[in-house]
Each structure stands twice: as C-alpha cells, then as structure tokens.
Amino acid sequence: MVAIELSNVTKRYGSETALNGLDLTVQSGEIYGFLGPNGAGKSTTINLILDFIRPTTGEVRVFGLDARAETLEIRNRTGILPEGVETYDRLTGRKHVEFAIESKGADDDPDELLERVGIADAANRKAGGYSKGMAQRLMLATALVGEPDLLILDEPSTGLDPNAAREMREIIREENRRGATVFFSSHILGQVEAICDRVGILRDGHLVAEDTIEGLRDSMPERTRLRVELDRVPDDSAGALEAVQSVDGVSEVSADGTTLVVTCEDRAKSAVLRAIEEYGVTVDDFATDESSLEELFMAYTEGDAQGVRQ
Ligand SMILES: Nc1ncnc2c1ncn2[C@@H]1O[C@H](COP(=O)(O)OP(=O)(O)OP(=O)(O)O)[C@@H](O)[C@H]1O
Question: Which CDD domains does this entry report, sorted A to Z (predicted)?
Fold first, then answer.
C-alpha cells in the first residue's frame, strides 16, 4: 500500500516556486529520508501532506485519502514532529501530552510516553523551563500519541546531543517495527544514513535522486578512489604518473611519497595496478575509499546536479 503520494505537485508563493512538478511515492512501512538543503521545499511538502497549505497544481494523497478533502482522517492517523519547538511555556510536559491524547481521542498513558522519550522526571515542570533538547523530546512524545500509522519528523534531531539523537533513532525504529511509516526530513546526511530504507534528495522543488544509500553510491562510479601503497618511489615517477593517468577510466591521479591516490571507475582498478607495476615497483597494499555520503550529497545539491546523474 502507498502511504504518501504526490503527483505532479507544484507550489508557488507569488513568484517563488517552492515545488516544481514533484512526484513522490512513499510505501507503507518504509522509513523514508527526505533530504535537501535549506529552501529545497521539504517543509512545503510536509505542509501539503497535512493540508496546512494547498498545492497550486497537482494532487496529494495519504493512505489513498485526498489531503484536501479528508484532512481530519489523515491528521488523526499521523504523528507530527514539526520543525522548531512549539511548546506552551506555561503548561507542564504532562499537560502537553494529555492535550494531544484528548485531541486525538486516544487512550495512551501520558507518563509512559514521557518515560519513553526520557523526560518522565520533568513531567510536572512547565515546558517554558525545558532545554531545547527536552522540548524536542516532549514534541516527540506528543507525536507518538495514538500509535500513528504515519510519523512525520521535520528535522527531528535539531537541538539533540548525539546520545539523544541515537535514542530518537531507536524510538523511530520501534515505531517502524510496530508498523508505522516514517517520513523523516533532514539536511543532515548522517541521520538519514543511519536509519532510512530509502532517501529522496530534493533540490529546487524537485527530486534530483531517489534510491537506497547504497544505490546512490553505486550511481557514482567515478567517485571510487583507489589508494595505493608502493614499496618505493619509481625511478621514473613522472612517467609512472602519466601511465596511470592514461589508463582508460582514470580521472585523477596524485602522489605523495610512496602513496598514490587514483580516482577512477571500478573497472579500471586492476589496469591501474598493472600500469604501476610496469614501472618496476611493488604494490605493498591498496584500498578503495567509497565516496563519502557527504560528497554524494554535495554533488547532488550543489553546482550542476545533472552532472552526477548517470
Ligand atoms: N510562506 C512563504 N512565502 C513565500 N515563500 C515561501 C514561503 N514558504 C516557503 N517559501 C519558499 O519556498 C522555498 C521552499 O521552502 P521550504 O521551507 O519548503 O524549504 P525547506 O527545504 O523546508 O528548507 P529548510 O531546510 O530551510 O526548512 C524557499 O525558497 C522558501 O523561501
């Protein structure tokens, strides 16, 4: 079953086009990472899913329901952790959760939820005195109310220290195991890598890539980097460098003493090693660096994004 479906959605704010013909499908039971730099259109997409705003053109459906006509049912089945903290300073943490339980007609135990997000001891304190991380945990507790079918987390790790971010990931996994679909928006790659089944990278209002993390890596063979350790510097080091450079599939070569770093396509690796050994040196060791996700993300979101598509 499809959890979220946007079909050819465009959203304009005056002359500003926030989303430009976006097609997006998230399957039920997925943890989907929605990635993009600031201003790419992530919050706009989430606001459309929840009918806080309406598309200029196109259609949005959640669990087959029309986002505009069946908004209440969608919101009832969804838990939302909005971007930024939205607490009421004068209400206690427990009151926030009680309020969420009441508005959803759910029967959760507020203390259990507060315990689960790690702020049970602050249940009776006013949220105005909470740290940013505690407020974020409180918002997560309210998102979990009523065992939602869909969890929408907009930049969920803002304000969380690494431990708290890890605890949040654990809760997200538990929710997913229970059957919830998770839509996780972020501009921080590490968080998405650690938890998501699939990621979509949004740029200027449309998807520039969508795949598993491994799939995205595989789509960039030119980013493979071979690090070669030689037993000594070849006598004709300039000639050796030139020979490696001219191997088909090699895009870049640099040398630092007995270490050679070669950026090449996967298929060129053994030809590179052979070319080096023809210069009378022995390859002591070699390793392949996979392109870091950070590089991958930057390639998709900066400069000419089309340049990295195969
Ligand atoms: N109410 C609005 N009026 C005018 N322009 C808007 C409005 N809301 C968003 N935009 C514009 O739409 C584009 C997409 O914004 P959006 O907030 O959806 O991006 P985002 O990916 O969520 O960014 P961030 O990571 O900074 O939250 C931006 O260029 C933004 O300036």
Answer: ABC_DR_subfamily_A
